[in-house]
Amino acid sequence: MPLILGVDLGGTKTHVIAADHLGNILGFGDDKDWDYVDTDRRMRKILRIRHTVAKVVNAAGLELTDFERVSASCSGADWAFEYPIGVRQLRESLGIEMISYYNDCIGALRGGTEMLGRDCAVICLGTGGNCSVFNREGQDFQYAYYFKDQHQGGGAIGRFIADTVVDASVGLAPETALTGLLLQATGCATAEEFHMMRTTGRTEYEAPTPPVYKNFAPLLFEAIRMGDAVATAYLELFSKELAHYVVVGARKLGMEKRDITVVMSGGVCKSDSLMTETIEKYLRLELPGAHCIDALFEPVVGALLLEYDKLYPEGVPPAVMATLERGCAERELFRKVAITRIA
Hints:
single chain, alpha/beta, Nucleotidyltransferase, domain 5, 5-stranded mixed β-sheet, 12 helices
């Protein structure tokens, strides 16, 4: 019975799932306990994967030699030359010959919809962001480094919030409910104190403390629920620009007049449904057949499903999917999306 390792490596976390070909999950884990190593960025990613794989395999009472296949969906798989490098490094590190290596947004896409013979796309908004479009003929277009900084997921949203609050404090931007929300979240008394903290430190002896901007992203939806015009206008513009990535990709692949399933994945979409609803509104202006869905599974399950698609080219058997879904429920590998309605 072939055993499979599914890997999801993002910018801030690594997930690994061990399973057999019948949908039984044998182990799952992350790299939260990994100690940072200052080395080449590609090697650092391999070290993170190796650490997490070893933990999962050992906890399952197995050996690496028990595994026949690895399906890895990884950040840093962007340019064409990077794919053979990733495959080689994983083979050398894990000692497993059959390696499938994808960009990390592809695992997220498969975690939301079947891909074989389908027209689909994915918008990932985690710490960073990415977008990929697939057609039913098997062609794809991935944005990777062409995905702009101002659209890089929770990090971009959080930076907008911080900069807007600072600008509003000196009259460079309108007053906004984001100010009170950000100060409450950071424990700062004023926007000036927050800006001092992130730029120079607040005293002669305090070093600057750069925020983890992605942590501010949920404040955007809180402000919108409060009726804040600044936050609402930003969400509209942000969503319109994200939809444009899918529109352009669909045109490149001849999908403009087709029904397209657009999977929304990542922590930003998971924390509030309003982003998904707004993106779909703009998508349908130019792609009438497009509709957005939330990814059902965490991306690491999508990585596993990509390998199941190879094992079962006629479709993953319902019994295998039923077994996998039971295991995902037990290990909380279904994505739980907050549903928000704004009147």
